[in-house]
Specification:
Helix content is about 65%, strand content about 0%. The chain has helices at about 1-10, 15-35, 45-50, 55-75, 80-110, 130-135, 150-165, 175, 190-230, 235-255, 270-275, 280-290; strands spanning about 115, 140. A two-stranded antiparallel ribbon has the order 1-2. Helix 2 packs parallel to helix 9 (about 190-230), helix 7 (about 150-165) runs antiparallel to helix 9 (about 190-230) and helix 7 (about 150-165) runs parallel beside helix 10 (about 235-255).
Length: about 290
């Protein structure tokens, strides 16, 4: 199962963005022209919607941050404190970004909406969605909305894919770390500590990787259900677009700032765990051992 999930995540996040964007547009467009029969997942009150999808960012943080902190403890080597700070800052920024856009989307809904009663009469004294939904009866809030669900599911899936990329080459740390930096020379205390940490945390990291991968696949499935069963075309497209834009700004720009890079895998081992080790290097090492 581990090997299958690693192969699934061999797809770089930059390509995954294209798949998600094309998928959202295609499935949302299909919803507009083709009748999609109801199912368990079309019910907004089903178990998964109420307890998992509704709190998808909390689930993402709860499962992925342990993986991010433990792996940074390994790949940061002797600078593990700096690695922990970088990981914490990365996730604080992502969480702040999530809440910022959530507040903006709610504000747009409140500014452009009206509350209607069961007879479709506007209730002009009600000025926000939350107050409207709390009223007794079958009141409905009608406004221009950006799908917060499409936004958070898109962002969560891309964030997890980006954080898990280092797993592709994680197994090479114990055998190829000495090739990546003078600080990790063969026989050095730094290399010995690194190998010990890698060995000690290997099982934990593998299990966390599996859990995070399953969570990401569930987010992608939930995004498909969102496209097929809820909201309007523009609403879902804008939600996904903001999720993609937020990911691009964070992982492709801000986290790779040269002054203080905080992207996953940054450190002495970055050339090893963020890029494919060259075949000739691996063969060379093997020949020396022989």
């Amino acid at each position: 199962m581990l090997d299958f999930l690693i192969k699934y995540y061999l797809i770089r996040p930059q390509f995954r963005v294209l798949f998600i964007w094309i998928g959202v547009l295609a499935l949302s467009g299909l919803k507009e022209f083709v009748f999609i029969p109801d199912s368990y997942f079309s019910d907004s009150t089903n178990f998964f919607n109420i307890y998992i999808v509704k709190y998808n960012w909390i689930w993402t943080v709860w499962l992925v941050t342990p993986y991010a902190f433990i792996t940074s403890f390994v790949y940061s080597c002797d600078h593990w404190k700096r690695g922990s700070v970088a990981t914490g800052l990365r996730w604080l920024f992502l969480t702040g970004l999530f809440y910022f856009w959530t507040i903006v989307f709610d504000g747009i809904s409140n500014l452009t909406g009206l509350c209607f009663d069961s007879a479709r009469n506007p209730l002009l004294d009600i000025t926000d969605k939350q107050s409207c939904m709390k009223l007794a009866g079958t009141n409905r809030w009608r406004s221009f909305e950006i799908s917060n669900q499409a936004f958070t599911l898109t962002l969560s899936a891309l964030v997890i894919a980006s954080e898990l990329q280092i797993q592709k080459y994680w197994k090479y740390i114990s055998t190829h770390a000495a090739e990546t930096s003078p600080c990790l020379a063969i026989g050095s205390k730094s290399l010995i500590r690194l190998k010990a940490r890698h060995k000690t945390t290997k099982t934990t990291i593998n299990y966390l990787f599996i859990f995070c991968s399953i969570l990401s696949i569930f987010w992608e499935f939930s995004l498909i259900c969102t496209c097929l069963y809820s909201h309007g075309f523009i609403t879902k497209a804008l939600g996904a677009a903001f999720g993609i834009l937020s990911w691009m700004v964070a992982y492709l720009e801000l986290f790779r700032n040269r002054s203080f890079p905080i992207y996953p895998g940054y450190g002495h081992l970055k050339s090893l765990i963020t890029h494919t080790p060259a075949k000739e290097n691996r063969n060379g090492v093997d020949k020396k051992k022989e």
